[in-house]
Amino acid sequence: MTTTETETLETIRYTADVVVTTTDGYVLLIERGWPPFKGQWALPGGHVDPGETSRAAAGRELAEEAGVYAAPEELNQIGTFDQPDRDPRGRYVTVAYHLTVIPGTIIEPGDDAVRAEWWPLADLPPLAFDHADIIATV
After folding, report:
1. What pTM did the predictor assign?
2. Mind listing the pLDDT tens digit for each residue in 25-37?
3. Is residue 3 part of a domain?
4. Which of 43, 31, 35 is nearest to 137 (CA)?
5. Three-state secondary structure along the chain?
6. Which phi and psi (to 5°) does residue 48 adopt?
7. Residue-range definition of the domain harbouring residue 22
8. How many separate domains does the chain show?
């Protein structure tokens, strides 16, 4: 590899996000407790750990950040999101999943989430990253 080729290599980070909706039209959002977008609303999600699939990471992050537990087979992949500017920290590629739950499913913020709340899909707050685009695919 030449010096020029080495200089153009880009670090790409791998993440997973989850769109959890209720059968009556609400979506689960967490308030971020850390930068970037600290204090803004986002989907539960985070980094895929070494040796972990994106589906397993999505389930783990959902449990850690919102107290919602799902078997891996309950998470349906909805797409890969890889716009180069989707995260101000650098290049992040996420695989997004969808889970449908019944109204009244209990949520509890944990890990790095300040709050977890159900929001009406028709009246969402401004969202961090490209999470509005991810929700729009469901």
Report:
1. 0.92
2. 999 999 999 999 9
3. no
4. 43
5. CCHHHHHCCCCEEEEEEEEEEECCCEEEEEEECCCCCCCCEECCEEECCCCCCHHHHHHHHHHHHHCCCCCHHHCEEEEEECCCCCCCCCEEEEEEEEEEECCCCCCCCCCCEEEEEEEECCCCCCECCCHHHHHHCC
6. -85, 125
7. 11-136
8. 1
